[in-house]
């Protein structure tokens, strides 16, 4: 994944020089899949591991003090009356949470009391016992720049007149369905949304679900089972991992976006078949994401499609972060690479990011969708999508597709691309190590050391900038990071304010690890901000 010399790497032996015929024009992909995964200097990794080592030693020492009653233990413990029972709390498994995460827990789960627009309001809280418990001060931190929400197209906002149709649906249908899709929970709004989503993706049919996580975890088991093989990218989302495990199929992970490793596994699967019996696999399903939410990388779709056709496998693509955010008209990774809709067998996505709503969808051939309508646990047992939620998605789709009679949707997609390009370029010039594709609105900035993760988030909030920081076990131990999510609603002034704060923080905490910085302090863009039309 990483390039020892730093800089950019191109996943795949020859990059790619594959042509796809669409609208009679060839598409070259090589310049689209070059991604940056610069390695940190050696001394940074040494100090990072030393920090975890010292933290572990102090953790054992504090556990010793707690066991002898010298220090108060705030963690959950077994009752004395149940000491002979099987332990309910695995003490060692909670070691990391108890001794490291708890010290920096104030940087997560911060309560928000406004819409997640480009600015939001944060409820201030403090802790008197080193983050074991919190109390609210009654103060609201107003107008914090939101750099953490997946509000890619800026559609998650408070009520305005453009949302009148949502209000009308709420008055007509109520807030909930109180039934499953199989019983009395299929509304005309669900059918309208599914038809519109299929049209948007240029596929035969689509089905929507009330929860994005369950769209993966409950539908993958309906597609594969015992005697099937799943080849899953090692960095796939937890919902994909859970769905794969629940399916009962054999799972073999391949290195992130690594075409050679995937082909090796496909070749072995074809040659050797199932373990012991050597029978051919019933199905081989490749599971990938469009944009990987922790890496900011984009799936190498053209080469993966070529492999799945060569070895007669099926391709399942999760576009939770890419639908609406990639492609000239927001149709995701497939459009981004200019490929045929039939190249992907199963399209999955969520409505929680670009659409400012909730839920998910599965799309593809009509036979596939009809099968899932009968066999999906999410369709059989889960409550249907709320009607106002469905209407918000319909409204967003019409905006993106231009069916509302305006070009505002296209403007938002273009503004998102412009903001992404600007923010990533300036971060590189400042000297930060960032991961992923230059077109990806998910921008991970590497912090590495756990102490710097906490200090970074706290100092940024003091500057009224809200950020998301991520560490182990969500990332590798030595690759803690801040994850910025760019939005079309961000103005140039907002991004410049964030960049100026990052420049100060980079100097204060010594976070500018890149060996490929272009300038010590680049001049920020002073052009007039491009404001979205109302």
**Largest sheet, spatial ordering of strands:** 5-11-10-9-8-6-7
| Unreliable runs | 1-28, 519-534
How much strand content do the residues show? 15-25%
Give the fraction of residues assigned to helices: 25-40%
Largest sheet: 7 strands, mixed
Q: Tell me the overall shape.
A: globular
Report mean pLDDT, rounded to a whole number. Answer: 89
Structural Rg: 24 Å
What is the number of helical segments per DSSP (H or I, 4+ residues)? 16
Strand tally, please? 16
Distance between the ends:
43 Å
What does this entry look like structurally?
GO terms for molecular function: pyridoxal phosphate binding; serine C-palmitoyltransferase activity. It is an enzyme of class 2 (transferase). Keywords: Acyltransferase, Endoplasmic reticulum, Lipid metabolism, Membrane, Pyridoxal phosphate, Sphingolipid metabolism, Transferase, Transmembrane, Transmembrane helix. It is found in: Endoplasmic reticulum membrane. Residues 142-502 form the Aminotransferase class I/classII large domain. The chain has 534 residues and is of the alpha/beta class. Helix content is 35%, strand content 15%. It has 16 helices and 16 strands. It has helices at residues 42-67, 95-99, 164-173, 188-201, 212-217, 220-223, 238-247, 259-272, 301-310, 333-336, 366-375, 377-381, 387-401, 408-430, 450-462, 492-509, and strands at residues 8-10, 34-36, 119-126, 135-146, 205-209, 229-233, 250-254, 284-289, 314-318, 346-350, 360-364, 436-437, 442-448, 465-466, 468-470, 480-485. The strands form four sheets. Strands 5-11-10-9-8-6-7 form a seven-stranded mixed sheet, sandwiched between helices. A hairpin with an 8-residue loop joins strand 3 and strand 4. Helix 3 packs antiparallel against helix 13, helix 14 packs parallel to helix 16 (492-509) and helix 15 packs across helix 16 (492-509). The longest helix has 26 residues, at 42-67. It starts with 7 loop residues before the first strand and ends in a 25-residue tail after the last helix. The model is unreliable at 1-28 and 519-534 (pLDDT under 50).
């Amino acid at each position: 994944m990483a390039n020892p010399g730093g800089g950019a790497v191109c996943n795949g032996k020859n990059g790619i020089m594959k042509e796809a015929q669409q609208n009679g024009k060839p598409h070259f992909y090589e310049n689209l899949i070059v991604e940056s995964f610069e390695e940190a200097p050696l001394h940074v990794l040494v100090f990072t591991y030393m920090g975890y080592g010292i933290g572990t030693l102090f953790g054992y020492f504090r556990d010793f003090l707690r066991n002898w009653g010298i220090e108060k233990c705030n963690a959950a413990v077994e009752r004395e009356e149940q000491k002979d029972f099987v332990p309910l709390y695995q003490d060692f498994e909670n070691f990391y949470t108890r001794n490291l995460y708890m010290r920096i827990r104030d940087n997560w789960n911060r309560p928000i009391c406004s819409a997640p627009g480009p600015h939001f309001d944060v409820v201030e809280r403090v802790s008197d016992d080193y983050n074991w418990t919190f109390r609210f001060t009654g103060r609201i931190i107003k107008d914090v720049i939101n750099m953490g929400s997946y509000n890619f197209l800026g559609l998650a906002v408070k009520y305005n007149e453009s949302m009148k149709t949502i209000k009308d649906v709420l008055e007509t249908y109520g807030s909930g369905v109180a039934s499953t899709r199989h019983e009395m929970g299929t509304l005309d709004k669900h059918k309208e949304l599914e038809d519109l989503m299929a049209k948007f993706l240029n596929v035969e049919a689509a089905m929507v679900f009330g929860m994005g996580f369950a769209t993966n975890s409950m539908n993958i088991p309906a597609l594969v089972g015992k005697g099937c093989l799943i080849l899953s990218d090692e960095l796939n989302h937890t919902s994909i991992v859970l769905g794969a495990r629940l399916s009962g199929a054999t799972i073999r992970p391949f290195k992130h976006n690594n075409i050679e490793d995937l082909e090796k596994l496909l070749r072995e699967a074809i040659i050797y078949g199932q373990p012991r019996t050597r029978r051919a696999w019933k199905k081989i399903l490749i599971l990938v994401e469009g944009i990987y939410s922790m890496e900011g990388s984009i799936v190498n779709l053209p080469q993966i499609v070529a492999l799945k056709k060569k070895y007669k496998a099926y391709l399942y693509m999760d576009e939770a972060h890419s639908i609406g955010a990639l492609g000239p008209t927001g149709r995701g990774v497939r459009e981004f690479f200019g490929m045929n809709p039939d190249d992907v067998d199963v399209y999955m996505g969520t409505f929680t990011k670009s659409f400012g709503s909730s839920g998910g969808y599965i799309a593809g051939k009509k036979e596939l969708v009809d099968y899932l309508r009968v066999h999906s646990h999410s369709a059989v047992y889960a409550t249907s999508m709320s009607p106002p939620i469905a209407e918000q998605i319909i409204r967003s789709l019409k905006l993106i597709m231009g069916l509302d009679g305006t070009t505002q949707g296209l403007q938002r997609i273009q503004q998102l691309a412009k903001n992404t390009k600007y923010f990533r370029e300036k971060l590189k010039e400042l000297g930060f190590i960032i991961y992923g594709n230059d077109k990806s609105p998910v921008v991970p900035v590497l912090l590495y050391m756990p102490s710097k993760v906490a200090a970074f988030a706290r100092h940024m909030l003091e500057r009224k900038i809200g950020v998301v920081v991520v560490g182990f076990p969500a990332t590798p131990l030595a690759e803690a990071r801040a994850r910025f999510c760019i939005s079309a609603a961000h103005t140039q002034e907002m991004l410049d304010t964030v960049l100026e704060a990052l420049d100060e923080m980079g100097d204060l905490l010594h976070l500018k690890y890149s060996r490929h910085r272009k300038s010590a302090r680049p001049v920020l863009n002073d052009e007039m901000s491009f404001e979205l039309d109302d």
